[in-house]
Amino acid sequence: MKKSTTTQTESLRPVTTFQETRMQHSENLRQNIVHAAAALLQEHGPEAVTVRRVAERMECSTKIIYNLFGKKEGLAKCLYLEGCMILSRSFEAVTEQPSLQQQLRALAHAYWDFAITQSSFYQVMFGGSFAEFKPDADSLEGTATAMKQLTQLVEEAQAQQYIREMDTIVAVQMIWAPLHGVIHLYLGGHLESQIAARTLYEHTLSMIVHALFTSDSKE
User: Fold this and answer.
1) Can you tell me the distance from the alpha carbon of 176 to that of 126, in angstroms, rounded to the nearest whole number?
2) What is the pTM of this model?
3) What is the rounded distance in angstroms from the CA atom of residue 139 to the CA atom of residue 163?
4) Which of 139, 147, 160, 163 is nearest to 74 (CA)?
């Protein structure tokens, strides 16, 4: 008699309950809908991201999207958080530099690249692309997570007494605000070209680095 090569234990497979299967299906569907909305955002801008157009891209009814996300604000929040993850990966990809000054410049360059190459996500996060959407606590936490490399750099600069401002959040905003301002001016059409915007961005970055890392900062 031929012996079976599979034991009874090996032949058993984990059982997925109906409720677990349903939840997995819903989460997969949510992710696919977010990806469809992100594709519309990148291809045609924020005005193209409507429940109807996302449903058309997914070839499903608008009711399914409303059931999963509620109003359009639910989709906007998911796109905001998707942008946070992209920005976070951009910062994480920055190679560690030999000095805090160089590290700050590298992070600032990564921020510029994100804003230019992912401008639709940038506008959702920081440009108010969806007037009906206001970042909630989860969204702001996503931003804080995305910016953690900058926060860690500021904390190190504070420890070395380069930055006198003792509130880390305020210190991060002091760096972030002028850099964002240049990008916002450019994306809003207030600077004549990307070259001009990048030149202004580099000048602004140099002013920040000089203000933070001159010897006088430690006095």
Assistant:
1) 12
2) 0.80
3) 28
4) 139
